[in-house]
């Protein structure tokens, strides 16, 4: 696990951080409101929406299909 908090790690102020409940809500809203055939399209649209809505300094996004298992 990697944690990169930058300057926000120095403070314990909620108003200086991203509210992850709002992030989760925004992702649910997007995924429930649009249909995606490609995982890459979902990831791109999600990253764009998060950058626009929350303006983070950095963004690392991982999107996985939970029900899909590798062949073999």
Task: Explain what you see.
By secondary structure, this protein is mainly α. It is built from 2 helices and no strands. Helix 1 crosses helix 2.
Blueprint of the fold:
Blueprint: H1 20-33, H2 39-54
Helix pairs in contact: 1-2
Coarse morphology: elongated
User: How would a crystallographer describe the biggest sheet?
Assistant: none
Number of strands: 0
Q: Strand-residue fraction?
A: under 5%
Structural class: mainly alpha
- First-last Cα distance: 28 Å
Portion of residues within helices:
40-55%
Average pLDDT confidence is 84
Annotation field: number of helices: 2
The value of Rg in angstroms is 15 Å
Segments where pLDDT lies below 50 for 5+ residues? none
The topology string of helices and strands comes to HH
């Amino acid at each position: 696990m990697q944690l990169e908090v930058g300057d926000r790690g120095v403070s314990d102020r909620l108003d200086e951080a991203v509210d992850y409940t709002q992030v989760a809500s925004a992702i649910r809203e997007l995924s429930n409101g649009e249909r995606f055939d490609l995982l890459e399209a979902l990831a791109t649209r999600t990253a764009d929406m998060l950058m626009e809505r929350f303006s983070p300094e950095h963004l690392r996004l991982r999107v996985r299909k939970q029900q899909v298992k590798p062949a073999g």
